[in-house]
Specification:
It is built from 17 helices and 16 strands. It is α/β, with parallel strands linked by helices and about 450 residues long.
């Protein structure tokens, strides 16, 4: 058996120990961040409860417990080989939850250190000394109970490195000492694929390859041609950390920080929408059909992917790119700089702030071409976990998804030259409704792609 539990009450350092084990090349997960594993329970009834972290939480009346079936699944997925697997987290004092582990390690620290760690933020329980004392007493009681049941008590008043050394010392003194062995790229990919599949991650193999290629600073073609090479300890630790985060449905792009779009690499942060392949048709059409030297604006540019991609292929165009705040524009500016593109960036809420008036303005009052990928998802849309991590302001467009487009279209004739073209994106089932809204301001549909629409201002 190669599964080991590292537990302890809040503030005892479980997450940092998991990170240090992973850095050393061991398979270690922070159990409190595995989707579906943990839940809050009423300590009196054992029933699940909702906890509002924005208000006062009485930690003496609720417990952070683990779903036993999910726990079994996590253990099974990570113990197929003979390498040690460390699960770190605040499980509970339910003895049956510990049956799947070879050894339970419980983290112990003195009351003074525990109090300091629990007070590290200006939080409700940090300011309530009585409740904090009760919480510390519960921790001491748990340590005693688990020690009596055979748990190994680890002193975390010492350094992080020494605490992890003590844990590994106990592991390696067992009847079958286990040491992490170097893995080939292929073995690492196989293990990561199996793990990601166990947590219902549909893109298991592809995601594993993308993450390992990122760690190795190579592409997937090179990776497949060298799959019998060995990972270094640091590469293995980095890869396992990224795979662990991906299992929590963190988007690949938020782990690697980049996404390819229209043959170009773009920096992506959690503050901007990840550009998708279906949007590339908008760039393709605009590049092909926009007349020489035209004035073009990208409304709601986000990462700047659309505007920059058009500019790279059409340096003759005069391009303006807008977004609602400098946070988003900072990402777009960085991407433009990376690709050597000079764009006119402006903070604007749709058309408000998008244009200047006066002889000295650097932004025209009207444009020949407009591109935009406004939020078009319905507010109650059922989304994949990865999509829910995208910025909501870039996703949702009201009850039918078209509220932003209605606001945008209302003033569009003031800013689009007669005969000019508009390119939009929305779900295929919304095309008819968007075409109807566009007709109200004199826009005639010219082309329909799967997601992309092209209009001409003809009235």
């Amino acid at each position: 058996m190669s599964a080991f539990l590292i537990t302890g009450r809040g503030g005892s350092g479980k997450s940092t120990i998991a990170a240090e084990l992973a850095r050393r090349g061991y398979k270690a997960l922070d159990g409190d961040n595995i989707p579906g594993l943990s839940r809050w329970e009423d300590t009196a009834t054992g029933r699940p409860v909702e906890v509002d972290f924005h208000g006062f939480v009485d930690y003496t009346k609720v417990a952070w417990n683990w779903e036993s079936e999910v726990l079994k699944k996590v253990i099974s997925a990570n113990t197929q080989d003979q390498e040690p697997f460390f699960l770190c987290g605040s499980a509970s004092n339910q003895a049956n939850l510990y049956d799947g582990f070879a050894t339970v390690f419980v983290l112990e620290l003195d009351s003074k250190t525990h109090r300091e760690r629990l007070s590290f933020r200006d939080s409700a329980y940090g300011k309530d000394l009585k409740m904090m004392s009760e919480l510390i007493d519960k921790h001491q009681s748990l340590v005693k109970e688990l020690a009596q049941a055979g748990a190994i008590v680890v002193n975390v008043n010492q350094s992080l490195e020494k605490a992890v050394d003590d844990i590994l010392d106990h592991v390696n003194k067992s009847d079958t000492p286990i040491q992490p062995k170097p893995a080939t790229f292929r073995e690492a990919l196989d293990a990561a694929t199996k793990f990601l599949s166990s947590v219902e991650n549909a893109g298991g193999r592809l995601d594993a390859e993308l993450l390992l290629a990122y760690v190795l600073k190579r592409d997937r073609v090179w990776l497949r041609a060298h799959d019998d090479e060995l990972l270094t300890d640091f590469q293995a630790a980095d890869f396992e950390y990224l795979v662990s985060r991906r299992s929590e449905h963190v988007p690949i792009v938020h782990l690697t920080g980049t996404r390819e779009f229209y043959g170009l690499d773009f920096a992506i942060t959690p503050e901007v929408l990840t550009p998708r392949v279906e949007t590339e048709q908008m760039v393709e059409w605009a590049v092909e059909t926009t007349p020489q030297g035209d004035r073009l604006i990208d409304v709601g540019t986000g990462s700047g992917a659309i505007a920059v991609a058009i500019a790279v292929h059409r340096p003759d165009l005069k391009i303006t790119a807008t977004d609602i705040s400098e946070t988003e524009l900072a990402v777009a500016r960085a991407n433009a700089k990376t690709h050597g593109i000079d764009l006119n960036f402006r903070v604007a809420d749709l058309w408000e702030g998008a244009v200047d008036v006066g002889a000295d303005s650097d932004t025209p009052a009207k444009f020949d071409t407009i591109v935009t990928n406004l939020p078009y998802l319905q507010n109650d849309a059922d989304l994949m976990p990865e999509v829910r991590r995208e910025p909501a302001v870039a996703l949702f467009g009201g009850p039918d998804g078209l509220d932003l487009y209605r606001r945008f279209l209302a003033d569009l004739p003031k800013h689009l030259a007669f005969g000019g073209h508009l390119y939009t994106e929305c779900d295929p089932w919304q095309h008819e409704s968007l075409i109807t809204e566009a007709a109200k301001v004199g826009l005639k549909p010219l082309r329909q792609g799967y997601f992309i629409l092209e209009f001409e201002l003809s009235q």
